[in-house]
Amino acid sequence: FQEFLKDELVKRSAQRGIPVPATATKPNTDKMLRIESLQPHMVNGLILLHSSQATLISQLRHFPKADHDDGPDALEMLWRNAVGSSAAIEWIGLDQLDTFDVEDEDDDLYSFWRD
After folding, report:
1. If we measure between CA atoms, which residue out of 92, 73, 106, 39 comes closest to residue 81?
2. Which domain of life is it from (predicted)?
3. Burial class of residue 106 in the structure, from the number of CB atoms within 10 Å of its CB (0-12 exposed, 13-18 middle, 19+ buried)
4. Of 22, 38, 30, which Cα lies nearest the Cα of 80?
5. What is the pLDDT of residue 115?
């Protein structure tokens, strides 16, 4: 499923003119342990969630007894890739998205992929 999702993300983002250099991730450790490993990072404020992410927040709050754990599982994979990546990652808030100019080289998050 991750490979399909990656392909769809790459295809649809390219169609919108905002290419996303996505990679598929296959976890190789216990899901419960991986999700539980997020807890200290959330407590320390390194992982912040927006209140609009109600489904994810509910799944985290009720983990491991929630009906679904897809959100926490995906969050853990995202976190692991973000902290383990050697490429510089610049995060922008959703409130900044309207003022973000992808044509401006200073605002081009993907320029290092094209160099």
Report:
1. 73
2. Bacteria
3. exposed
4. 38
5. 42
